[in-house]
């Protein structure tokens, strides 16, 4: 069950950077009333009117009021709301309130529930209902419980399996009730595409039927619809699905504005693909990049299934036997793979001096390292053939010796040097750049050491010397008065770092000199491992051989699950 974001809506202007970076105010999380009404004008256009101008006024007013309800629906703000949330998603049992204690929650039970949620969500585990925790509870998310069966031990795997699966691989489905505002042919195509997300990596097949019994029934309904789990209108709950043992059906709230291939409204394909994961037996994953993560991310124009999802579905149904699932690896990796001998020459400059200026992930999923006036593209094994190349050729107009870089969720990449920053759409510089950092990133200093978008909360973090700043372009002011804060808050990290990178395996990496640190976002500290961190970057990231190394770790399979990688790290 997916819930639309409702906790941090803002009406009116955002900060300079919100406009500067091209962030869409009409996103699922922040949109102005005016833009929302313009974007959802197709709702009005579906109403056939024969009447006069007065009718138009009443209809426009009704739409306006409906949209206001969407923008101001139910954030989690109080302890009572948080208790309901934790109970709904499996962190508190129904019997948590002790009658012998006047119907009150035991303090230790409450603290553990909050800690469990914070751990699953990748927050700092405090046990306190702080602002960050309430903020994350207000995010759009799936309504299926994170803990399927309260009281079970913590999962050993990143992904989770509910425990039931279909005993056949040739499954059928039908759409028994279509949405009101989309064409049937378009809906059929999107639903088929959502099923193919899972059949691409297994021998499962999904055949549509127009009538008769099927394995999975799909319908678009509103309010109470017969399963005891009523929808709540625009905003709030988007959809829910049932595990195979309960029938596998998927229901979508038809009060929502379902859209196809657009950032407007709610993306049908992505919600359907997530819900069908539940229909096949998958529970929620705590890998943020996974489709089966509980928090709804909104429209993704370049959607790719995360390898965590692939491992999960194949754990239930096996790998695809015709080889499609093994076509050169997965689009994303759950864990940083170990390295094979590199293809770069032994005397390559980055092997002699592995210090880098910055690392970042591009919008198309590539990872780049900048050093001086050159750049490297990293592969799963080392450095791609043909590198290094000149930065000026890869990103025309961009100078060398970059201080920091990151790609934001709007698909734009930002580069920082000295007092200025550049914005690129892919490899093309946007107009009127460079600009002053003080102009677009109010409250952020010049001459930065590093920057990244942290997966723990989606905020932008900047580092300089012994301090760091958190920047939220959707808040005003974008930097809270409590910043800067000491880097020592990131337990185990040194001052004066060179680069920071949120990698696709759920870890955050920090680089200083010729070494790197792996930061565990769940424990909020540098990972404890053997060999310990920091480790040599040349060996572990750039695949250099004949370089000093403090480890005897052997090359392995980059597609092993994250839980197995963690166990291996603790033993070797």
From TrEMBL:
Signal peptide: none annotated. Residues 162-319 form the Peptidase metallopeptidase domain. The modification Phosphotyrosine is found at residue 433. Hemopexin repeats lie at residues 353-398, 399-444, 445-494, 495-544. The keyword Nucleotidyltransferase does not apply. The chain crosses the membrane at residues 55-73. Can bind about 5 Ca(2+) ions per subunit. Binds 2 Zn(2+) ions per subunit. Keywords: Calcium, Disulfide bond, Hydrolase, Membrane, Metal-binding, Metalloprotease, Protease, Repeat, Signal, Transmembrane, Transmembrane helix, Zinc, Zymogen. GO terms for biological process: collagen catabolic process; extracellular matrix organization; proteolysis. Zn(2+) 2 binds at residues 142, 274, 278, 284, 292. It comes from the Eukaryota. GO terms for cellular component: extracellular matrix; extracellular space. Ca(2+) 2 binds at residues 247, 249. GO terms for molecular function: metalloendopeptidase activity; zinc ion binding. Ca(2+) 5 binds at residues 405, 451. Ca(2+) 3 binds at residues 232-233, 253, 256. Zn(2+) 1 binds at residues 225, 227, 240, 251. Its cofactor is Ca(2+); Zn(2+). This is (Mediterranean fruit fly) hypothetical protein. It comes from Ceratitis capitata (Mediterranean fruit fly).
């Amino acid at each position: 069950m997916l819930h639309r974001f409702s906790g941090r809506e803002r009406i009116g202007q955002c900060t300079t950077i919100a406009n500067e970076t091209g962030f869409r105010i009409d996103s699922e999380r922040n949109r102005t009333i005016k833009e929302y009404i313009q974007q959802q004008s197709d709702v009005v256009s579906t109403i056939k009117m024969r009447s006069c101008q007065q009718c138009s006024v009443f209809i426009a007013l009704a739409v306006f009021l409906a949209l206001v309800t969407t923008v101001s629906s139910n954030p989690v703000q109080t302890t009572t709301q948080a208790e309901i949330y934790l109970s709904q998603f499996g962190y508190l049992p129904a019997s948590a309130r002790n009658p012998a204690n006047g119907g009150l929650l035991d303090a230790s039970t409450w603290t553990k529930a909050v800690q469990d949620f914070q751990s699953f969500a990748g927050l700092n585990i405090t046990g306190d209902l702080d602002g960050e925790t309430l903020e994350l509870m207000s995010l759009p998310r799936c309504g299926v419980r994170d803990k399927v069966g309260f009281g079970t031990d913590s999962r050993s795997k990143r992904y989770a399996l509910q425990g039931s699966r279909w005993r056949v691989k040739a499954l059928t489905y039908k759409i028994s009730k279509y949405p009101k505002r989309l064409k049937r042919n378009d809906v059929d195509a999107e639903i088929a595409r959502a099923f193919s997300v899972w059949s691409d990596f297994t021998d499962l097949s999904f055949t549509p039927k127009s009538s008769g019994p099927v394995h999975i029934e799909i319908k678009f309904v509103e309010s109470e619809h017969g399963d005891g789990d009523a929808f709540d209108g625009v905003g709030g709950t988007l959809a829910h699905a049932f595990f195979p043992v309960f029938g596998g059906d998927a229901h979508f709230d038809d009060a929502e504005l379902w859209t196809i291939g657009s950032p407007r409204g709610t993306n049908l394909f992505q919600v359907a693909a997530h819900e069908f994961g539940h229909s096949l037996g998958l529970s929620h994953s705590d890998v943020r990049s996974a489709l089966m993560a509980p928090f709804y991310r909104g429209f993704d124009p370049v959607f790719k299934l995360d390898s965590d999802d692939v491992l999960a579905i194949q754990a239930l149904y096996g790998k695809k036997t015709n080889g499609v699932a093994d076509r050169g690896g997965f689009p994303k990796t759950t864990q940083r793979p170990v390295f094979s001998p590199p293809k770069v020459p032994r005397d390559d400059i980055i092997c002699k001096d592995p210090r880098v200026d910055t690392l970042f992930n591009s919008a198309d999923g590539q990872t780049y390292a900048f050093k001086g006036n050159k750049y490297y593209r990293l592969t799963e094994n080392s450095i791609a053939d043909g590198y290094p190349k000149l930065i000026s050729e890869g990103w025309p107009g961009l100078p060398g010796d970059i201080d920091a870089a990151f790609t934001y969720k709007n698909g734009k990449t930002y580069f920082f040097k000295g007092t200025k920053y550049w914005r690129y759409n892919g490899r093309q510089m946007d107009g009127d750049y460079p600009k002053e950092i003080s102009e677009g990133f109010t409250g952020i200093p010049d001459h930065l050491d590093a920057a990244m978008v942290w997966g723990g909360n989606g905020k932008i973090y900047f580092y300089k010397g012994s301090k760091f700043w958190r920047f939220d372009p959707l808040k005003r002011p974008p930097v809270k008065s409590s910043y800067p804060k000491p880097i020592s808050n990131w337990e185990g990290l040194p001052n004066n770092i060179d680069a920071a990178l949120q990698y696709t395996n759920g870890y955050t990496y920090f680089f200083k000199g010729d070494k790197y640190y792996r930061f565990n976002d769940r424990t909020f500290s540098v990972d404890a491992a053997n060999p310990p961190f920091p480790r040599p970057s040349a060996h572990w990231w750039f695949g250099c051989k004949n370089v000093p190394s403090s480890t005897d770790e052997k090359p392995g399979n980059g597609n092993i699950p994250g839980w197995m990688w963690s166990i291996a790290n603790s033993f070797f």
